[in-house]
Design brief:
alpha/beta; 12 helices; 9% strand; globular; hydrolase; SGNH_plant_lipase-like; GDSL; SGNH hydrolase-type esterase domain-containing protein; hydrolase activity, acting on ester bonds
């Protein structure tokens, strides 16, 4: 107990210094000390720029509305992870992990990698990627650095307990694995069994994340991949009344249903932690997209009919705020804000449960020593 009090005192000093730095620099104090991001191209903020893979978008018109231009984000500007960071009160972008040289890791790190998935073989034909397992390995490097920076692993653990963790994985396990003829997974597994394989693997990974000190974890479900412009063009004879490739959506909904069950299981299993489900499929619904004029078209000129990336140095649409999709698969900044706001502060009980991210921030949790992990009031 004495060691716990000592660690708590040390942590209080760390947070006091951190807040003082924000006050003296005229910066807003974030709602949480740090924010860690795991994911795919919807969250990637430039990690693939450092990797040996053609799956990278560090060229214009990507980033045409981003402060520094093309950054590696699959968007004209901010992505969903960025909008959540802003709503959490961070006044600068969360750093990418890159090749491990990031120095601003106390605020958090974004490990997202375009093309990566839950399974290690997902996207393997596209060269070097940060799979979910590699992202977790990279996070352990960061945790070790935080331990050295704060003086002990115990202080680091209490610091990390207060942070927000988001993970958005699974899209590529379908788009760049199960739905492709170049992989044999669709011959080996029925949609039901494949979803179960993903869930069992993801469970191990989320528990691994918990073991590093993560206690407030928001897990994003899969968006309606059958509505992506690339997929509606590739499956013209399989469209439903909403002009979406219904079979693709049906398969990923099997995963989403199982993921909701998994989140409930983990939330009940770990009493000192809170896992919550962000209902991306619901947030990406036609009703949500009514705010946009163009819901099935790409804003930029893609490389081929049914393709995903924008053609390099081409001129995109001028009315970007009216489009859901920037390229053949990824959202515009306007849609990212629309999405991120509902993940942070749900508009209905279907958007996120049992908590949205703002509630996750305020939630009181107790660690195994009986100390309060977060002192904010819900």
């Amino acid at each position: 107990m004495a060691s716990g009090l000592k660690a708590l005192w040390a942590l209080s000093m760390v947070l006091l210094v951190s807040n003082w730095q924000h006050w003296t620099c005229g910066k807003a104090t974030p709602q949480v000390p740090c924010y860690f991001v795991f994911g795919d191209s919807l969250f990637d903020n430039g990690n693939n720029n450092y990797l040996s893979t053609p799956v990278k978008v560090n060229y214009l018109p990507y980033g045409i509305d981003f402060p520094t231009g093309a950054s590696g984000r699959c968007s004209n500007g901010l992505n969903i992870a960025d909008t959540i960071a802003e709503q959490l009160g961070f006044d600068s972008f969360i750093t990418d992990f890159g090749v491990g040289g990031c120095t601003n890791f106390l605020d958090g790190v974004n490990y997202g990698s375009s093309g990566a998935g839950i399974l290690d073989e997902t996207g393997s034909l596209s060269g070097e990627l940060f799979t979910m397992n590699i992202q977790l390995y990279n996070h352990k490097i960061t945790v070790s650095r935080i331990g050295k920076q704060l003086g002990s692993d115990e202080v680091a653990k209490k610091y990390l307990n207060q942070c927000i963790y988001v993970t958005d994985m699974g899209h590529n396990d379908y788009l760049n694995n199960y739905f492709l003829d170049t992989y044999n997974s669709s011959q080996l597994y029925t949609p039901e069994k494949y979803a179960q394989l993903l869930i069992e693997t993801y469970k191990t990974q989320l528990e691994d994340l918990y073991s590093t000190g993560a206690r407030k974890i928001a897990v994003f479900g899969l968006v309606r991949v059958g509505c992506m412009p690339s997929n509606t063009l590739q499956h013209p004879n399989e469209l439903d009344d909403n002009s979406c490739a219904y079979k693709l959506n049906e398969d990923i909904q099997i995963f989403n249903t199982k993921l909701q069950t998994l989140i409930k299981e983990l939330d009940g299993k770990y009493e000192d932690a809170a896992f919550t489900y962000i209902n991306s499929y619901e947030i990406d619904s036609d009703k949500t997209n009514e705010a946009f004029k163009f819901t099935r078209e790409s804003c930029c000129n893609v490389m081929a009919s049914g393709g995903v990336p924008c053609k390099s140095l081409t001129i995109p649409c001028a009315n970007r705020s009216e489009y859901v999709y920037w390229d053949g698969a990824h959202f515009t900044e306007a849609k990212a804000w629309n999405f991120g706001k509902r993940a942070y502060k749900r508009q209905s009980s279907r958007d996120a449960y049992p908590y949205d991210i703002s509630e996750l921030v305020q939630l009181k949790l107790h660690d195994n020593d009986g100390d309060i992990v977060n002192h904010a009031q819900l």
